[in-house]
Amino acid sequence: MNILVLGAGLMQKPAILSAKEEGFTVHVIDADDKAVAIPFADTFRKIDLKDKEGILAYAKELKASPEGLSAVFTAGTDFSASVSYVCEALGLPAHSHQAAINASVKTVMRQCFADAGVPSPAFVRVSREDLSAGDSQILLNSILQKMSFPFVVKPVDNMGARGCRMVRSQDEFFSAVKCAVECSRTGFAIVEEYMKGPEFSIDALVQNGSFTVTGFAVRHIKYEPYFIEVGHTMPAELDKKMHDELISVFALGAKALGLTCGAAKADIKYTSKGPMIGEIAGRLSGGYMSGWTYPYASDLNLTKQGILIASGKTPEELIKRRLPVSFTPSELCKNAAKPYELFEVPCLRTSAERAWMSIPGTVKYIENIKDYSDRAVFDVLPRATVSIGSEVDFPRNNVEKCGNVIAVSHSREAAIAVAEDAVSDVFITLAADNPRTEAFLAGNQASDEAAFPPDAFGKLSEEELKEIAAEKSEIPANSKAADFIPKVLQNAEYINKKDWNYNTIKTTAQKFDILRPKHPALNSERFWKAVMRGGIQAAVYVSDTIERLGK
Fold this sequence. Notes:
The chain has helices at about 15-20, 50-65, 80-90, 95-100, 105-115, 130, 135-145, 170-180, 240-255, 290-300, 300-310, 315-320, 410-425, 435-440, 460-470, 505-515, 525-550, and strands spanning about 1-5, 25-30, 45, 70-75, 125, 150-155, 165, 190-195, 200-205, 210-220, 230-235, 260-270, 275-280, 325, 340-345, 350-355, 360-370, 375-380, 390, 405-410, 425-430, 475, 520-525. The chain is of the alpha+beta class. The longest helix has 26 residues, at about 525-550.
């Protein structure tokens, strides 16, 4: 039996391995002939996933072989429409091509929701031509007739939060829309009403009129004006009414898009008006959820169940383990008809995924401050693009993070604590005397990015800096920084704060002492100001720069 998997990156590795476990001969395609999961497949062919005609030609070639072609599959890519295009042409199980387009192009998606009365934000489509017309004020005025600041701008056809950001004022508008259009393969952006409320990711499998939830996580989104997912925790802890409402509105949205056979993935918020859909994709989620955190939490190989559906088989384990969910539409769609029979395969334990990030600079080396042997840590996953000599920045989207940790436990508190502790012990040393790092430490910000990148712990006032200098003007060479934490940084305002990598000021000083037991004399004001701005990376950077330059 042959299966064709679109994509050969890390996010597609679970699909390749799961298909092989089911006895398939796995053929993968990708535009990158160095993609990390190629060695796990049986064959590889270099085909761009945007090239649906090229994919169809290859699929026909596989179908004509003695083994035939049983399924076409993807997970964690933008190209579910390419899968459906091929499957529709060859008579293989999948969502219809039109349904997959509905679930891929955000403006089309929003219109489907609006036509079906499914709760989602108001929106306006913006094209490259709208920007080239020259008068951005006219465009902005037309948008402000439909919604007010803040609103959200994103490309209509991309993932990973690329080109996605909040627009809080007129000063941020034009550059945000321009970036979103540039990140779009088709040259269109969507401007939509901002939804306030907690956000969730939900995976589901659809087959024969049933809709089975296979992963329900709370997303941890931070750092306006961008939407950076610093992690997710699964399962989400909710009361039954809220839980069932979110699943019900997700199902109504999937029905509105026409999803009938395959995977569905929702980003959805619970607002003051009830659930509102951010978006629904016709594929399994990326971001380590479908291939890692849900299987760890549930003992169900979700990807394998999706492959069985894609090959026309019955996902027996899914059916055996699922429990019914009450159809509970919210007030905004209370008269809606039940779209599918609703089920969920619940989790048995907690998975906590957390990301680690870097301040701007050039990577000198990467290390763990301590060996992490806690058995609750299932994965430490550095991003392949972050290596010695590479440029790093504080992330503006979800592909610019430096790596991820996944911890699993029967105790929710333990899973979260272990994941955050593991992240806090990953350290990226930045090259000394770097203009990008210096600009960050100086607090430089673009005019359309007020308060971004954020401070690690907060900005010190002139009064506080004077207090630090008066208390102790210098940290002596080779002494412990933890012994010289200024009194002002030990007060209630700062003592329990954590930076983006879950370090406090105290643990930052302690880790500096581990990383740099020998260091030059450090000006207290400069050192602690750097710590407040950039955490442990900034502390080591300042010491290394003084060591290198002698000043």
